[in-house]
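Please review this pair:
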Amino acid sequence: MEETPPEVESGEEIGFVTRSPRNAEIRGTGGRK
């Protein structure tokens, strides 16, 4: 699994990254912008 790039801030891709083990960081940092 790779990290989510800053370009991935749409929401559709966020849903795919949320299934990652780093979803906690993504959702707390910029996943839920």
About this structure: The first helix runs from residue 12 to 17. The CA atoms of residues 4 and 13 lie 9 Å apart.
